[in-house]
Amino acid sequence: MKSSMKTPDKDGEKKADKDLTKQVKISEGVEQSNSSGSSVHELINGFNRSPSPPAPRKRLRTVSGSGSKAEHHLLTTKSGRKIYTKGRPPWYDKKGNTLKQPYVIGICGGSASGKTTVAEKIIEKLEIPWVTILSMDSFYKVLNDEEHKQAEESNYNFDHPNAFDFDLLQETLARLREGKSCEVPVYDFTTHARDHNPKIMYGADVLIFEGILAFHRPEINKMMDMKVFVDTDGDLRLSRRLNRDINERARDLNGVLEQYFRFVKPAFESYIAPGMKAADIIVPRGGENDVAINLIVKQVMTQLIKRGYDQSASAKYRQELICRGPMVDDAPQNLILIEQTPQVRGLHTFIRDRRTKRDDIIFYSERLTRILIEEAMNFMPYTEKEIELSNRQKEIGLRKNTQICGVAIMRAGETMENSLRAIVKDCKVLFPKIKRI
Ligand SMILES: Nc1ncnc2c1ncn2[C@@H]1O[C@H](COP(=O)(O)OP(=O)(O)O)[C@@H](O)[C@H]1O
Ligand SMILES: O=c1ccn([C@@H]2O[C@H](COP(=O)(O)O)[C@@H](O)[C@H]2O)c(=O)[nH]1
Question: Where is the Phosphoribulokinase/uridine kinase domain (predicted)?
Fold first, then answer.
């Protein structure tokens, strides 16, 4: 589609054509490394040859879902940088209010137009610590058996507004804007179903919400500070979608094409393209349009600073705490301090070093919380238990009391979850403040 090109696209159509050639070349590069072994020519020839009924789906590769693009909230950008995209656990000021609202960027565009790529590039260039990406995929409705069967036969319309739970989406976005935590469903494209484990997300300094129908509901649009429409040529979107759906979403060629022409293309015309009218910025060609992405980043940074965003604030606060010194002397009697072994000090050194990278901090913090939880296990109720050794001798050991033992963690409890689960086999973690979805 030729866009009204509200964003920089200096030389108009001529350049767009040139860039299209460039893009096709990129697609050819992708084609060679296509692990299914098929080339674009084969795909197109295959399409020409067979208008046959949809075959039952062949499962190829696994895992592609709303959680998989930033698996465990850790996004590795194309340049290899790791960015934590879960948002910021709620922080409160002295009056118990959460800190400022996130700057919300909505990204809309056709399937495989490059929405995720644009979102990742914005995040990479912004270089701010607290960011969240919320994807519309998370809000696909749960299918009943009949709908599931249709989906398997590429005969379910995932591109119609009715396929999404907009109420849940609106509620979730509203909570994240208030800096509150949410449980967000994780969608698996290979099974057309939600994962058993939802992901927990928080508000952030910047929240990016992306999806094919991101601009469909006016109430949701009102929650966005900036609306970006990614406008990529239809043929290019189809060729990228073929590649992606076959390689990552366990689809076969005929199924992808059937679904595309029956549902995806018409829905683009009827519901997605009209979203362009709501957009503040249109990005022609998607992720490779660095000029547009740089302008977006500049505008977001300006707005964040206007709202009082101060990159050095957390560093200043940390310095204040360091200056206050250790609070061991006036600590309560029942406070137990972990022994400052060389290992513990070594882990702290990593965590406190300003040059330590974000993912290393997460890694070493997890090691530290393991030590903490191991130590805490000594305070659990144990009862004596007689056991028999392999040589039939008896021995009196200890078993954890079978009674339920509740432990309240006031702050940063979730960061301890992995370590806790690794040490305590039968633990249940509850997040009382989180709204269940
Ligand atoms: N500029 C590009 N050149 C080649 N492939 C691209 C480009 N941008 C995106 N892709 C590929 O196209 C597919 C869809 O991109 P993605 O950013 O996930 O789009 P969306 O989020 O709109 O579905 C992915 O497989 C991605 O790697
Ligand atoms: O189970 C499903 C759910 C969705 N789809 C298709 O996915 C795209 C949206 O994802 P993008 O990452 O924006 O491309 C949409 O066009 C649906 O047709 C699916 O095929 N199966």
Answer: 104-292
ipTM value of the model?
0.98
Whole-angstrom Cα distance, residue 317 to residue 323? 10
Domain that holds residue 347: 329-430
Among protein residues, the one with the nearest Cα to ligand 2's atom 21 is: 189
Whole-prediction pTM value?
A: 0.67
Domain harbouring 421, CATH code:
3.40.50.2020
DSSP secondary structure, 364-381, as one string: HHHHHHHHHHHHHHTTS-
Distance 207 CA to ligand 1 centre (A): 20
Task: Report the separation in Å between the CA atom of 21 and the middle of ligand 1, taken as the mean of its atom positions.
Answer: 16
pLDDT at 68 over 50: no
- Banded model confidence at residue 178, pLDDT cuts 50, 70, 90: confident
* CB burial string 118-130: b at 16+ within 10 A, e below: bbbbbbbbbebeb
Which SS3 state, helix, strand or coil, does residue 47 take? helix
Predicted confidence at residue 180, as pLDDT, reads 81
> Has residue 19 got a pLDDT over 80?
no
296 & 345 share domain: no
**Atom of ligand 1 lying closest to residue 243 CA:** 25
Report residues whose beta carbon is within 6 angstroms of any ligand 1 atom. 23, 26, 30, 109, 111-117, 240, 244, 286-288
Which has the higher per-residue pLDDT, 81 or 373?
Answer: 373
